[in-house]
Amino acid sequence: MSTNTTTSSLAFTSLGLKQDLVKNLSSLGYEQMTPIQAKTLPELLNGKDVIGEAKTGSGKTAAFGLALLNKLEVKRFRIQSMVLCPTRELADQVAKELRKLARGIHNIKILTLCGGTPFGPQIGSLEHGAHIIVGTPGRIEEHVIKGTLPLENLNLLVLDEADRMLEMGFQAALDNIVGRTPLDRQTLLFSATFPEQIKAISDSIMTDPVLVKVASNENKSTISQKFFKVNNDEERLDALRLLLLDNPVESTAIFCNTKKETQQVAESLHFDGFSVLALHGDLEQRDRDQTLLRFANKSASILVATDVAARGLDIDSLDLVINYHIARDSEVHVHRIGRTGRAGSTGIAFSLFSDKESYKVGLLEDYLEAVITPESLPSLAVLSNDRHQAKMATIQIDGGKKQKVRPGDILGALTGNNGIQGSQVGKISVLDNKAYVAVTKAALNLALKKLSKGKMKGRTFNARHLTN
């Protein structure tokens, strides 16, 4: 295994990418490469197998995305690239980024294959062909075994967040999938950590890979961390309320170590009048999708989540992260708090701990190379939870892409003919058979009336307010 230590010029134009890609990058405002992009892209474009050790938010998706798009032959309508991700949320996020990067390339087809969605329509989509597949190991293995996903033309395979895929028990599925791909393919493996299992996998499926490590200094410099000591669980919940009330921000993620605790904390905060949603593995896929959507469009100001459920959480402006308990290992702690303070903005992270967790604090001190001193909790004076109410509400419309509904149709129905103001409309998400739109709470009743009584595409669709 060779190791890459040099960084080429940081401009994307220095790479010799296809002109369509370069033009599109410029239109997206992508001028300079991030460290992981600068270190991996020259190797990737040279056809080398690459192991990238980098955290979420480092720009790794654009790194492997540009490599596979540059290699793609659009006129060959065959599956040429495949990206494996640990969760559906991350797969959706990766596919979205690839489509954005591919805007300058005509007639490209990117298909997402994940569990939690019907199998039949995916077979139909595969029969129509694709260039790039993005999906989760479980569902992709099903298609491979059934023979509905042909891989004989695959020339580039990406394992994204490989450490998480192994943690979640996908080792056998990965072996089965990789074993059915051509031996002369190029393989890219990205991982936030590099345990022995990853080394074993890379040794068995890669050819003389280049190892690229990017230090995560950003987390230490742009995130303000504070630690608060509590004596018991009742005091822990009181401390959480105080911290939330004393920090009136738009979006807060609270991380818990178990599904049960996640649900209990969310229910307690909801009872106290906070605008809060829970995200954990016991939720049905549809409920998980709706929870993420409502948090992203600011219809809820607080998300209480487990680490695995929040994998792939793509929220641009996460103002505050609170660790209800210290994470089980220091890598996970850094990953959690790295969700705030992205893109150079300053983030805030609070962590609660008791005497029982002192050993975790000691491990964190070693990992962060810093002394952790507990702070005093805010006092009860003049605190009101009015400041933690979401500004928006989400409306679900029973029509989507398959009914030819587009975001413009929804916006037009809301704002036309004595409707609500355009400034009162937030994010619009159109899925296959459903659509979701965020509107300000003040405009909710009129918006519901306009959507349920008005027409889109010549017909009326049911619309309802999504609540807890």
Automatic annotation (TrEMBL):
Keyword Nucleotide-binding among UniProt keywords: yes
Lineage start: Bacteria, Pseudomonadati, Pseudomonadota, Gammaproteobacteria, Alteromonadales
Motif (Q motif): 10-38
Organism: Colwellia psychrerythraea (Vibrio psychroerythus)
Domain Helicase ATP-binding residue range list: 41-212
Protein name per UniProt: DEAD/DEAH box helicase domain protein
CDD domains, per database record: DEADc, RRM_EcDbpA_like, SF2_C_DEAD
Family, similarity comment: Belongs to the DEAD box helicase family.
Annotated ranges, domain Helicase C-terminal: 222-384
